[in-house]
Prior knowledge:
Layout: H1 3-23, E1 30-31, H2 32-39, H3 43-51, E2 58-59, E3 65-67, H4 69-83, H5 90-98, E4 110-115, E5 118-123, E6 135-138, H6 141-153, H7 160-172, H8 177-190, H9 195-207, H10 211-224, H11 229-241, H12 245-258, H13 263-275, H14 279-292, H15 299-314
Antiparallel strand pairs: 1-3, 2-3, 4-5, 5-6
Amino acid sequence: MSDELARRACYTSTQRLRNIKKKFHLSRYFSQQEVADVLSVTESQLLDWQARRLVSPIIDEPGQFFYSFIDIVRLKTVELMENQGIAPVPEVLDLMERRLLDLDDRMAHRVLTIFEDRIILTQKNHFVDSRAGRVLVRLDLDELIEKLNKVVSRPPNRTADQWFEEGTRLLSAFGGSHQALAAFEEVLKLEPARADAYLNIGKIHHREHRLVDAERSFRLAVLRDPHHAEARYYLGRVMEDLNCLDEAIACYERALESDADLKPAYYRLGKACAKAQLWERALRHWNYYLLLDPDSARSDSIRRQIRDLSLMLTE
């Protein structure tokens, strides 16, 4: 596309947006593209936040989303919280929003600028340096995190299964580890012997490289259920990370005694044996893994390791 055609396309798109805003009385709202530009995020990221009910923009007849100033404050807060490894929840954002509703009335004829953790509104047609601009909102992340902790730690009338489902959902969400940990701890308050809760707490600690805490959690899971194959497996992972290879190997073997189809355990067992220079055992376990799962993403890497180790042993 030539520069002239690109310029015309840009002008047409901008003019169409102005017409839509005028028709539907949206002059104080921002389009999806405008919000993405302001926040320096992709439009698909905005749609993801909407799907998670973190913001609820209005939608016009042609099917375009439009966001208020408060929506942008919410989304910037979401971004800051996720960058801190904390999954935001709508209830916390709603608490913040109630204190900011009067700002929507001050949006007319102003330009929105985001600078670090501040949202700045300046008069149109006037250049104002962002550091000297009038700061209408400063997002206090520490205050929001404190509110988040109160929301998560406040024990509503939930069963252990409901807390467990909530923890599992949060565990799979980006930045949800902090809240998931709190949810699984609520499970243990109601069911202190629930091995799966200890297992998931251990997974969170392991993922965040708190190996001592992870080891303790996995041991508690095994103590509650000695035949819990996954708990034995993850305890082996931690012991391998701590270079306690004999115990790691024993954990993997016990895991496979409980569940002979636990494919990752064969791979980790082979790897731990190789680290311990138990070459023949490593080859045996890796070859058995390939029998169970010859087409996995890991299989090609295992074949290369088998080939290299076999060559080394024949030299």
